[in-house]
Amino acid sequence: MIVNVYKLKIMIDNKSVKIKKGAIKYAALLLFLAFGLSKVGAQPTNPNDVAAKEIVNAMNGSATEWNNGNLESFMSLYDPSATMMMPTGPVGLDAIRALYVNKYFNGKMPKQNLRYSDMQVRLLGNDYALLTGAFTLYGNNLPDRSGRYSLVLIHTKNGWKILHDHSG
To answer: Looking at residue 107, what DSSP letter applies?
Structure first.
C-alpha cells in the first residue's frame, strides 16, 4: 500500500479532513523528537556496572584511609567474618588487623602509601563478587612493593565488604 503524503485524508467524527504536506513533516519531526531523542539520556543502567563502580570506589576509599593513617576506617571494608589466606592457612579479622599494625604501620601512620590498580570485578550472583587487581606500597624513601590480590566480597546493607582476602 502506498500512501501519498500530499493528499492524506483522515476521518474525524465522520468528516473528511485534508492534512497539508507541511503539517505531516512537522508532526513527524515532533514524534521523532519526543520518542527518538528521549532515549538518549535514559540509557538503562547495567547492575554489573553499578556494582563494579561501588566496589572500585570502596577500594579507592580504603586506600585513602590507609594513606591518611586511618587503619580502623581501612579495616571497615572487611566483613566481621572476613578471612585472609596466610602461609599457615586462613586467619580472621583480629589476625588481619595485627598483620597490618605490626608489618605495615609505624604507630599511627603507614610505612608506605597504598594504591590499587588493574581492578577487575566479576559478579558471583547478586550479593557476591570476585575482585582481582594489583596493589603497590610506595613512598617514604623505601623501595616500592607490589603484588596481586583476589578478594571475595559480599554486598551488605552497609555496602560491599571483603569476605576473603588472598593477597601476595
So the answer is: T
Residue 65 phi/psi, 5° resolution?
Answer: -60, -45
Are 129 and 152 within 8 A, CB to CB? yes
Closest CA to 120 of 131, 109, 107, 129: 131
Q: Tens of pLDDT along 41-74?
A: 444 456 679 999 999 999 999 999 999 999 999 9
> Cβ(84)–Cβ(99) under 8 Å?
yes
CA angle 104, 106, 107 (to 5 degrees): 120
Per-residue pLDDT tens digits for 98-147: 999 999 999 999 999 999 999 999 999 999 999 999 999 999 999 999 99
| Domain covering 47-167 assigned CATH 2.170.130.30 in the classification | no
H-run or E-run covering 47 = helix 47-67
What residue segments make up the domains of the chain, in order of their start? Answer: 5-39, 47-167
**Contacts of residue 63, Cβ cutoff 8 Å, sequence gap at least 6:** 114, 115, 116
The burial class, CB within 10 Å (0-12 / 13-18 / 19+), for 50 is exposed
